[in-house]
Amino acid sequence: MQTVQTLMKNLALAPANIAYIALVFVAIVCCMGSPPVWAADYAGPLLDAHLHYNTEAWDGQTGPHPPSDVLARMQRSGVRAIVANSRPNDGTLLLAGSPLARQAGVAVVPLIRLYRNRADYDSWFQDETIFDMVQAEWTKGTPGGAYKGIGEFHLYDSANANGPVAKKLMAFAEQNGLAVLAHVDDVAIDLLMANTPSKGQKTKLIWAHTGIGGAPVARVDALLARYPLLMGELSYRPGLTCADTAQGSERLCPEWRALLLKYPTRFLIGSDTWINPRWQAYGDTMQGYRAWLGELPPDVARNIAWNNGAKLFDVPTPY
After folding, report:
1. Assuming Cys at both sites, which of 73, 127, 181, 285 could form a disulfide with 152, CB separation 3.0 to 4.6 Å?
2. What is the pLDDT of residues 94-127, one digit of tens each?
């Protein structure tokens, strides 16, 4: 875990405001002023807001992870809803129409993925056939109902947020009330928001990994304040947890605990099953979330684990 001196040095170098620094200071003092209390793991339902069911996982249901396998993994982990997007979209359609999903008690929220194949990762933002495909999928829908968003998409160069198709898709999403799942840096967040009719004030954008490149917490804070519907998804997020050598486990880092407490309705969890080993580790991933969610006040933990995603996508509360 970072020392107090190192943490305060990092904060001094970041463009944090006084209120933010005070919030972190309170979190640190509380930890220092009393012996550690090991809370029980969060035990409620989970909503996996970043799930891929790519072709190599199921491969026409003959792959290593057919629907019965992945749904059993979700059920064992207490995952009661998923936000599914796949390369190609056939994987999402398979889950959305599967009677096994209903039997497992797993609600499927389908997103339109922009990728027909791996080549599309690098060119979707300027490929008009991608926009045509999204419109066709949107019109067609899924066996389980309408699509609820688009993505996940990647921008390896933030300037490509101004590509012609990127601009059209951001406007299309906002105009149709669709969420957008975007794997981008903090610069691209501003550019994507600028390309919407409301300039980001009515845009339901889920920031995949809340910046996998490790945008400073103060920068994340500033973006959440600027865009009222921006949500942070927390898979692979650098600096979220710190090693607890005494317990041999991971705990929330103080600066991230402070941010989650400041914005309890703005974060989501996800598995990001982008390769098959992520399916094999699915239970461990979800247990990792349950462990650090248990450190938070129960209402905050429930928000991040379930309520925030359920509200965003109108998913009924499981009983």
Report:
1. 181
2. 999 999 999 999 999 999 999 999 999 999 999 9
Contact 84, 306 (CB under 8 A): no
Report residue 284 as tokens: 């461990």
61, two tokens:
């249901």
> Which of 80, 73, 11, 14 is closest to 44 using CA atoms?
80
For residue 105, give every residue at least 6 positions away whose Cβ sits within 8 Å of its Cβ, in sequence order, or none: 75, 80, 318
pTM of the model: 0.88
How far apart CA 256 and CA 168 sit, in angstroms, is 34
Task: Identify whether the C-beta of residue 237 lies closer than 8 Å to the C-beta of residue 210.
Answer: yes
CA 191 remoteness from chain centre: 19
Residue 170 CA to residue 179 CA, distance in Å, equals: 10
Bridge pairing between strands 267-268 and 46-51? unpaired
Query: What are residue 236's phi and psi, to 5 degrees?
Result: 60, 10
Which region, left, alpha or beta, applies to residue 239 given φ > 0 means left and ψ of -120 to 50 means alpha? left
Per DSSP, the three-state class of 108 is strand
Residue 102: CB partners within 8 Å, gap ≥ 6?
A: none
Kindly list the distances between the CA atom of residue 94 and the CA atoms of 10, 29, 160, in Å, as whole numbers in the listed order.
46, 50, 31
For 271-300, the pLDDT digits (tens) are 999 999 999 999 999 999 999 999 999 999
Tens of pLDDT, residues 9-28? 343 334 444 444 444 444 44
